[in-house]
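Entry, Tuesday afternoon. Goal for today is a structural model of the target with adenosine-5'-diphosphate bound, before we commit to ordering more compound. Inputs were pasted exactly as handed over by J.K., no edits. I checked the ligand SMILES twice against the vendor sheet because last time a stereocentre got dropped in transcription.
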Amino acid sequence: MTDAIQVKGCQLIYPMKDGTIHALEDVTFSATEGEFLSIVGPSGCGKSTLIKLLAGLLPTTKGEARVEGELVRGPHKNVGIVFQNAVLLAWRTVLRNIMLQVEVRKGFDKQTYLGKAMELIKLAGLDGFQNRFPWELSGGMQQRVSFCRALIHDPPLLLMDEPFGALDAMTRDEMNVWLQRIWMEKTKTVLFVTHDISEAVFLSDRVMVLSARPGTVKEIIKVDLPRPRKLETTERIEFMQYITRIRKLMHEEGFY
Ligand SMILES: Nc1ncnc2c1ncn2[C@@H]1O[C@H](COP(=O)(O)OP(=O)(O)O)[C@@H](O)[C@H]1O
Ligand SMILES: [Mg+2]
């Protein structure tokens, strides 16, 4: 079986007017199909850069990145992306924001996808809100709409860059339980960036810790906690031990 993600010796240097910024150096890792892999690391270490690289939005300056065995050369149809802010179009309803994903791609039958969109809206707990506008929804609901939009074309790989970063702690906890359920039902490969260690441990099969810039893989920690994980899971000793271990690694990189 090919890995869902393969990154080998990736380097990324941003050219600047007065020099360069060395964002990533020799990043090597892979993710198996259906795996939930989180990325944590100090601010500015290159997490978003790594996501953009895998999304095909930025070329590497050295090394290679593959999605389902294929070299990443540009945006890939098998990838769904969720960013920190929901970036919904204010003048489109929930349903039409989700359908946008299908409308901008060629060869999708709109009628079929209308049905799929409604299924996702139900799954996201947004039933009855399909004809509302983004500004009529809470932050958590808006973020769930952007998840639906990322999922509508059923991509096997989801890239998420701090998708819950803008939400309050309680909404975030709820969203984590929700995301775990979606992931377990749909068996997607997820690459999830967060600066919240607890969130990373809660959701992940493995947590990858990046070093300070230029970001490189410092350590990958396997999280052996039974699923489905519940809010009570966060009170278990093993859970705390994972957090302590990852926090220590982050401290070594100067992150407090
Ligand atoms: N488009 C860009 N041009 C130049 N430098 C950038 C660009 N995007 C990010 N950087 C720099 O690259 C480094 C890594 O950024 P980023 O990937 O956003 O880090 P993180 O998501 O881990 O906080 C930072 O020093 C940032 O300032
Ligand atoms: Mg970032």
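The longest strand covers residues 19-31.
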